[in-house]
Structures are given as structure tokens and as C-alpha cells.
């Protein structure tokens, strides 16, 4: 096992990794920017290294500074968390070339699944269902031709990148031409089309694979509640799935992971077409997910600890038959944003914070009272995770937890989560990927031009509000 792990991230995921390392008697090294000198992950780690000024590009995305910190502190391994550098194959390669273990998939795997076009081509021979798609586009003219071949409606996706960013839907050629007028860099960044499934649920499957060919799945997560393709609330399991469907999508996820020789922790994402109950492959995310906690509470398996053990060369100590699922879990992502002002970021000083607690409530956060929410980084404050005997029970526990969570000094998305939980369609499970857009349209309306916003930024915001799935 490792003696010392450097955590190349910040916020709640850095805190989460520190906790897993402490249970394994592993020394932890935090990295921090000037703005994060007093951050919670810095306080909890055994050691901390300053890697630059507040700007993320000069600190948390500064690969040279992070790698130097790992070398200077004699770290055995590096954990990238999620976001930031977790899907940077070049950085993973630099880490391994320096003789430091990368806690995650192999660099070549990250490179393969990070390019959606290559990933689709690699997985297609396995027979996993996929929505009809196009090759990467080289011009607006080619885009219009390809859309006709794929068949409207189509969803335009960037070949690289994740998190739902840059995707937009065209229901006809006029829509597409409007998008292309605004999306001025289609020739600078590679895009491709997939046929857009109108009524669908976003189902993702957690997979875990050791370095010796064993690949298992740990069940599915329901991630259909999204705003502009950004997840707001997740559940496990999905009440849309029968046991046969659950077995089928789990088997598809394992098959997809095996087809790219996957190792460590990852997520295989699907769209469930509600018209025919067929699963269509979307992508593989080669990292721990923000929503990993709901899988942990229904399976009892510590995913971050498992990541570390696999990277250290240990084989899985459980089989697929050992994996059991108990109850129902829900996660709400609480961000420092004002949902009533087009989700404008709300940085500021936290003057008061009371964490929700009590039976079956988990609170994952990287902040405390007295700290600042900085404007330079992701706005996630905390994740509230609850575990109920069934879905109705979990909803009631989450309502209690949201009521108990008090934070002052910044605006948050708490009011939106309260509205979601009270919505009758949500409570009965009648949801799909269009839930927020249809049930709460005020939260996806086209923004007005704000002070300091360039014309390009406004154009992109219009695309997101009008054409995002």
C-alpha cells in the first residue's frame, strides 16, 4: 500500500480522498492556491504545498507545479479527484513517467474514452446499442448534410470534454442553422452529431475493474434531473428499471468497460429511450463521479478506498454475486449560485453554516463557517446524500435535511431543490431528461445581457437556454 498520496484537487472531493487515505493509514499531501490557504482540505491534510495564485490555470491546472509538488514531497501516488486534471491523459502519463502511481485508469484508456468518436468506434464492435451518429464535422456545410443523414432531431456534441458542456439540440434545419451562426468555433473544436432521443432517462452505471481483468458493476444511478445538461439531483437505484432491465444495463456497462480494457473506477453512461425501453451508449467517464456517494450508501462499498487499493495493485476482494443493494439514495448538489437570477455565481464569505445530520444523512463538503466561496473555482458547496428504506422514505429524509441545512453569506440552489422535491411529477417518479425544462421553465429561460458579458458569451448563453437538451 502507498505511504503518501498527493491530492491534485480541492474542495469536497479533496476532503473525501483525505478521509479514505486516513482509514488506510496513508499520509496525505494537499495542494492549494493562494486563495485556498485556509481551505478545509488544507487543514485536514498531513502536509500542504502552495502551487500558485488564485487563478485556476496558474494553480490547480498548473501541471508542472503539481507534479513538482508530488516529486518534492516524495509522494508514492497522485489522486486527481474529478474535474480539473482527472481526464487529462497527458498529465496522467507525466505522473507515471515520473515514477508516481496515477490513481485512476491508464493514460491510454483516458485518451481513448476521452475522444467520443474514438470511444464509439472502439465499443461499437461489441454490439452495444448506440444512437445513430456522424463522423467529426469539418464545416457548417458538412454539418447540415450530416444532420439529414443522422435524422432530426439531432444533438451536436463536442468530441472531447465532458460534463454535458457544449451540447445543443436541433429539431430541424432552421434550428441547426441558427446554432451554427452562434457557434462560431465549430471548425476550431471537433463536433459530431447523434440522433436525439426525445423522451429519455439518463442512466449511468458504476463499474469497478482491477488490474487483473476482473470487471464488475455496482448498479445504476438515475441522473435525469439536469439543467443545461448539468446534473442537479441524482438517485440510486432508478425506479424506471425492472430487475431484468437492471441486469441488462449492468451487463452492457461491464461489456463496454472490457472492450476498452478498463481498470480502476469509472462510469458508463446510457440514455434509456422511453419509447422502447432500450439503452443507448453515451460515453465512459474515466474518473470518480461527483455522485459516487449514492452508490456507496446503497452498496456499502467505499469507491475512493477501492480506487486507491486497485492502484496499489490489489485485486478486487469481492465478486459480482457479493454486490447487494439496500434501500434508496438521493443526492442534492448545493451550489453557491442564485437560481432566481439565471444561476449567477454567488461567491462570498460564509458567516454561518449548520450542517444537516441525523439518521441516514451524509454531508460531503469542503467548506465551513468563516471560509470564503471563491469566484475562481467550481461553485459546489456541498452534497447532501440521504439513504432511505425506499424512495418515498428517502424523499422525506432529504426534505428534513434541506430544511436543517442553513448557510448565510452566499446564495445557494437550496430553493430549487425544495421545489423539485415538492413537485408531484418528481414524487411519483414521472421524470425524464426534460423535467426541469418542462416543469420549471423559469430556470432555463434565455438570459439578458449582463454587465461585462461579451457578445460571444451572450451568444453561447442563448444557445444553452434555447437549444440544450
UniProtKB/TrEMBL annotation:
<dbReference type="InterPro" id="IPR011761">
    <property type="entry name" value="ATP-grasp"/>
</dbReference>
<dbReference type="InterPro" id="IPR005481">
    <property type="entry name" value="BC-like_N"/>
</dbReference>
<dbReference type="Pfam" id="PF00289">
    <property type="entry name" value="Biotin_carb_N"/>
</dbReference>
<feature type="domain" description="ATP-grasp">
    <location>
        <begin position="120"/>
        <end position="312"/>
    </location>
</feature>
<dbReference type="Pfam" id="PF02785">
    <property type="entry name" value="Biotin_carb_C"/>
</dbReference>
<comment type="function">
    <text>This protein is a component of the acetyl coenzyme A carboxylase complex; first, biotin carboxylase catalyzes the carboxylation of the carrier protein and then the transcarboxylase transfers the carboxyl group to form malonyl-CoA.</text>
</comment>
<dbReference type="InterPro" id="IPR016185">
    <property type="entry name" value="PreATP-grasp_dom_sf"/>
</dbReference>
<keyword id="KW-0092">Biotin</keyword>
<dbReference type="GO" id="GO:0004075">
    <property type="term" value="F:biotin carboxylase activity"/>
</dbReference>
<feature type="domain" description="Biotin carboxylation">
    <location>
        <begin position="1"/>
        <end position="441"/>
    </location>
</feature>
<dbReference type="InterPro" id="IPR011054">
    <property type="entry name" value="Rudment_hybrid_motif"/>
</dbReference>
<dbReference type="GO" id="GO:0005524">
    <property type="term" value="F:ATP binding"/>
</dbReference>
<protein>
    <recommendedName>
        <fullName>biotin carboxylase</fullName>
        <ecNumber>6.3.4.14</ecNumber>
    </recommendedName>
</protein>
<dbReference type="GO" id="GO:0046872">
    <property type="term" value="F:metal ion binding"/>
</dbReference>
<keyword id="KW-0067">ATP-binding</keyword>
<keyword id="KW-0547">Nucleotide-binding</keyword>
<dbReference type="InterPro" id="IPR005479">
    <property type="entry name" value="CPAse_ATP-bd"/>
</dbReference>
<dbReference type="InterPro" id="IPR051602">
    <property type="entry name" value="ACC_Biotin_Carboxylase"/>
</dbReference>
<dbReference type="Pfam" id="PF02786">
    <property type="entry name" value="CPSase_L_D2"/>
</dbReference>
<dbReference type="InterPro" id="IPR011764">
    <property type="entry name" value="Biotin_carboxylation_dom"/>
</dbReference>
<dbReference type="InterPro" id="IPR005482">
    <property type="entry name" value="Biotin_COase_C"/>
</dbReference>
<keyword id="KW-0436">Ligase</keyword>
Amino acid at each position: 500500500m502507498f505511504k503518501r498520496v498527493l491530492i491534485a484537487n480541492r474542495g469536497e472531493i479533496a476532503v473525501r480522498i483525505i478521509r479514505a487515505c486516513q482509514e488506510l493509514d496513508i499520509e496525505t499531501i494537499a495542494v492549494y492556491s493562494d486563495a485556498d490557504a485556509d481551505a478545509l482540505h488544507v487543514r485536514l491534510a498531513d502536509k500542504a504545498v502552495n502551487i500558485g495564485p488564485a487563478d485556476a490555470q496558474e494553480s490547480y491546472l498548473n501541471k508542472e507545479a503539481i507534479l513538482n509538488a508530488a516529486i518534492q514531497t516524495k509522494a508514492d501516488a497522485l489522486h486527481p479527484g474529478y474535474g480539473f486534471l482527472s481526464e487529462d491523459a497527458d498529465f496522467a502519463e507525466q505522473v507515471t513517467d515520473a515514477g508516481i502511481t496515477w490513481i485512476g485508469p491508464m493514460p491510454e484508456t483516458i485518451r481513448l474514452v476521452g475522444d467520443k468518436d474514438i470511444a464509439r468506434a472502439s465499443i461499437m464492435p461489441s454490439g452495444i446499442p448506440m444512437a445513430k451518429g456522424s463522423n467529426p464535422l469539418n464545416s457548417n456545410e458538412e454539418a447540415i448534410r450530416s444532420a439529414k443523414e443522422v435524422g432530426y432531431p439531432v444533438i451536436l456534441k463536442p468530441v472531447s470534454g465532458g460534463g454535458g458542456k457544449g451540447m445543443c439540440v436541433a429539431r430541424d434545419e432552421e434550428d441547426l442553422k441558427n446554432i451554427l451562426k452562434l457557434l462560431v468555433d465549430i471548425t476550431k473544436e471537433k463536433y459530431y452529431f447523434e440522433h436525439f432521443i426525445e423522451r429519455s432517462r439518463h442512466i449511468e452505471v458504476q463499474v469497478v475493474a482491477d488490474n487483473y481483468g476482473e470487471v464488475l458493476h455496482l448498479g445504476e444511478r438515475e441522473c435525469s434531473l439536469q439543467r443545461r445538461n448539468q446534473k442537479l439531483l441524482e438517485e440510486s437505484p432508478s425506479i424506471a428499471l425492472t430487475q431484468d432491465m437492471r441486469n441488462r444495463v449492468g451487463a452492457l456497462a461491464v461489456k463496454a468497460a472490457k472492450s476498452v480494457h478498463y481498470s480502476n473506477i469509472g462510469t458508463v453512461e446510457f440514455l434509456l429511450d422511453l419509447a422502447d425501453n432500450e439503452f443507448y451508449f453515451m460515453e465512459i467517464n474515466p474518473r470518480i463521479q461527483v455522485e459516487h456517494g449514492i452508490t456507496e450508501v446503497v452498496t456499502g462499498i467505499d469507491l475512493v478506498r477501492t480506487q486507491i487499493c486497485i492502484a496499489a495493485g490489489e485485486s478486487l476482494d469481492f465478486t459480482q454475486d457479493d454486490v447487494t443493494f439496500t434501500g434508496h439514495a438521493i443526492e442534492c448538489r448545493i451550489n453557491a449560485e442564485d437560481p432566481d437570477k439565471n444561476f449567477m455565481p454567488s461567491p462570498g464569505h460564509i458567516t454561518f453554516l449548520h450542517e444537516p445530520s441525523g439518521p441516514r444523512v451524509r454531508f460531503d463538503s469542503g467548506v465551513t463557517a468563516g471560509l470564503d466561496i471563491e469566484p475562481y473555482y467550481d461553485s459546489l458547496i456541498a452534497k447532501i446524500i440521504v439513504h432511505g428504506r425506499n424512495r418515498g422514505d428517502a424523499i422525506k429524509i432529504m426534505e428534513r435535511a434541506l430544511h436543517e441545512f442553513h448557510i448565510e453569506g452566499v446564495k445557494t440552489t437550496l430553493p430549487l431543490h425544495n421545489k423539485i422535491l415538492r413537485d408531484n411529477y418528481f414524487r411519483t417518479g414521472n421524470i425524464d431528461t426534460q423535467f426541469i425544462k418542462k416543469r420549471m421553465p423559469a430556470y432555463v429561460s434565455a438570459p439578458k445581457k449582463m454587465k461585462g458579458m461579451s457578445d460571444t458569451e451572450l451568444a453561447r448563453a442563448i444557445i444553452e437556454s434555447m437549444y440544450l437538451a
